[in-house]
Structure formats: structure tokens, C-alpha cells
Design brief:
Blueprint (H helix, E strand, L loop, with lengths): L1 H18 L44 E9 L6 E9 L2 E9 L4 E10 L3 E10 L35
Antiparallel strand pairs: 1-2, 2-3, 3-4, 4-5
Length: 160
């Protein structure tokens, strides 16, 4: 029994030393000698490919366009429109749509190289609520006259 206890204690000591719980002596090694190696540069052959460019006749120095669309879908309730035109570097347009809160949003915009992009946004309700006040007729208040009924105490009778 004593031998097995010594064996278990020895294994525990070895396990603790392996786990780094017990300090062990530092082991130093000499640095490896520097070895210089040279490789020949790789040869890379570069071939220039022609660059594909648009022909000069496709460039428009003063572009112009106009477009518009209008959508009114009664099934989904979608309603929107847009109009835009460009004349050179100046773009003008307007679009409108119905927001989910029941307002129609209309945006008028311009863009040019001097002022940049500018937009004016307007919102208006689709259903205009017109408040009307019904005329009220005034008359003298009705006075109710109280209706009195007579009250008599019950008759008292004595019996001997």
C-alpha cells in the first residue's frame, strides 16, 4: 500500500510540473545562424490590350430629354406621378405620391451646376374637411310647472 501511495504522489508531481504549476528551469537555445538566400526574379511578360472607348459621336455636349409617368391603381390605392426635363446641365422636375397617412406629397426640384440640387416639398390632405356650423335656433326656456297631488294621512281607528 505504501508503494502505491508513493507512485500516486510521484505521478501527481510530474503532472503538476507538466502543467506549469511548479517552476521549471528555463532552457535557452542559441539563435539560428542567418542564412542569406537569393532567388532570381520571376519573369513576367506584360501584354498591353487595347482600351475600348466610346466613339466621339456618342458624346452629347448638350443632353436634352423629357419624360413623364402617371399611376392611379384603384385596386391597391397607389397614386403617383413624375415629370422631369433636362436641358444641358439644368434639370427640372416634379413628383407626387400619396403617403400612408393620407396626405399627398408633391416635390418640385431643380438641379444645376451653380445652385446644386434644390427641392420644395408640399403636403396637403387628400380629404379636405369643411367645417360647417349648423344654425342654432334659440327659444325661451320651457318652464315646467310642478304637478302637485294631494296627500292625506291615513285615518286612525280605535277598537275597544
Amino acid at each position: 500500500m505504501r508503494l502505491s501511495l508513493q507512485f500516486v504522489a510521484l505521478l501527481a508531481l510530474i503532472a503538476a510540473a507538466s502543467a506549469g504549476v511548479l517552476p521549471a528551469a528555463q532552457v535557452y537555445h542559441a539563435a539560428p545562424a542567418a542564412v542569406a538566400t537569393y532567388a532570381a526574379p520571376a519573369l513576367v511578360k506584360t501584354v498591353a490590350h487595347p482600351v475600348l472607348a466610346k466613339a466621339d459621336d456618342e458624346y452629347d455636349p448638350h443632353p436634352q430629354y423629357k419624360y413623364a409617368y402617371d399611376v392611379h391603381d384603384s385596386l391597391s390605392g397607389d397614386s403617383k406621378s413624375q415629370v422631369e426635363e433636362r436641358d444641358g446641365d439644368v434639370v427640372r422636375g416634379e413628383y407626387s405620391l400619396v403617403d400612408s397617412d393620407g396626405y399627398k406629397r408633391t416635390v418640385q426640384y431643380t438641379a444645376d451646376p451653380i445652385n446644386g440640387f434644390n427641392a420644395v416639398v408640399n403636403r396637403e390632405p387628400l380629404v379636405k374637411v369643411v367645417k360647417t356650423v349648423a344654425p342654432v335656433a334659440y327659444s325661451a326656456p320651457l318652464v315646467k310647472t310642478p304637478v302637485y297631488s294631494s296627500y292625506a294621512a291615513p285615518a286612525v281607528a280605535y277598537h275597544h
